[in-house]
Amino acid sequence: MSAVAVVVGILAAGGAFLVLQRGVVRVALGFVLLGHAANVLLLASGGLRNRGVPIVGASQDPGDPLPQAFVLTAIVIGFGMTAFLLALAFRAGELFGVDDTEGESRDEDEDDGGPSEGGSERGAAADADAEGSAVEDA
Amino acid sequence: MIRALPLAAIVPLVAAAVSAVSPSVAVRRLIAAVALAVTGGIGILVLRETAGGDVLVTEIGGFPPPFAIAFAADTFAALMLVVFAVVPGLCLTFAALRGHDDVPRAHAGALGLVGASAGATLTADLFNLFVWIEVLLLASYVLITLGATPRRVRTGTIYVATNLLGSTVFLSGVALVYATAGTVNLGALRGAAAASGAVAVGATLVVVALAVKSSLVPVHAWLPRTYPDAPTWVTALFSGTLTKVGIVALFRVVTVVFDGEPVIGAPLLLIAGLTMVIGVVGAVGRTSMRSILSFHMVSQMGYLVMALGIGTVGGLTAGVFFLVQYIGVKTALFLVAGTVESDEGSDDLDQLGGLVHRRPALAGVFLLSAFALVGVPPLSGFVAKFGLLRAAFDDGAYAIGATAVAVSFLTLLSMVKIWNAAFWGSSPEEPTPGASRPWLFVPAAVLALATLAIGIAAQPLWRIAERAAAGLVDVAAYAGAVAP
Fold this sequence. Notes:
heterodimer, A: about 140 residues, mainly alpha, 5 helices, about 0% strand, elongated, disordered C terminus, B: about 475 residues, two-stranded antiparallel ribbon, 21 helices, 2 strands, globular
């Protein structure tokens, strides 16, 4: 059981590290790791001792089928979401020529403060500037 | 009737799939109208059947409870079903008038949003709630990146990443709840978090994930950054369904799983106060209509959490009433912003002025909705806020009551700012040709007149809200019906 806890911890730590990176592809891979951490946690929630076939009478120690069904669903959903995020990254690469979330951080710099403090809304010109510089960086 | 309950979610989803492959806009509009009528009709029927405090339950797949995934409808769920059918209908009407709904998959996305909202409202199973919220988000991902323009790809990335993180937290919470309580059936989980600290940890993770979805402080920053960049009708649609599903699920999960545990009241009220203040202060510095309104959405979420934090029948009655009228008011305001953007080419306050002379009807709609948002009598917002304040003071929660009053004044400040910059004053030097779509303001006008009607004749909706609140405070009927 504690080995599983360590695995979940390592996956979550790696995922958190990657999600905090700037490239969208790295962020997507980070979410893959975080999703796996949640999936292993979900699998462990049914108890790991019983590993028999989950059919009544078929084995001495039937496993809990419910977490397995949960994980299967969660994996499929996670796969779809990751595919969408990668598609967005691909489109961003086409548009800006660079796989980098730097555009977003630029936005914040020009905003005279973070979103929670308010600040002036950028006009269309500032937007064009930000896009221009993002392309230059590539 | 009970057997028909899942149809409220299934029909829009099937319609979304059909709509995605049908070639003509007219067919897609017809499909959407039929699907929304089915969901709304089921909502009205269920509203009548649950009038006596009954809870309708159907076990999907025929497994015995608590193993089956149950769909349960009480007055609260039925009321939300009606709202989640009417508001998207008006938003799609606006999109049709604006000529924005002929993009591929616009109707499919909207119908997916409606179906998933209905599913998330009806489900009585924590894991199933996770699945519905994922379906909801997937539909919203499609809508927020419609057209895949550079700005939308950028904000779409923020939006998707934030929500993926929220979903991962949700999933972990479900895992911990199942590991500690041995069930994810909401009926069987009644009071589980109040009884056991271990379950409370998992349930709190679920609450945190729902707080991300409903953009409560301190996990609110994604909403004001992403909503203003979506197409105008999509922003209106999101404000009426997407973020509100988070708060509906929050109402359900907190009332059932914590079952009146007083410990959760104080942190909820703290979050409510912070959300109100930070949202409204953030809006002051914004200079485009949709941007201001998006920040206000954060602020108004605080009032709903305040109702949950108070947790009495009076507080939740006002909360449910607030939720319904606020969805109408906010959607109306976003549709006004969309109309202005369509006529003038922008909703940036610097480039607007003198609209009251050119579009008096639109100005009237804005004024009604803005005053309703602030809470000026006799409009619906006044009834809702008065009920909330009375419940807060009855409960001795003076600090949050005072905050709510102060935030209302700041809300007025932002609305006056929009009014002065866009409607009052002189027209820009080179007026845009504009006004080519004279009927575009009609969906907003319908909602604005509805808020006026709800404000003057508040009793019918207030009675329904009272029934809904009674079911939320005393969850015995709900839990008993779901997990006998």
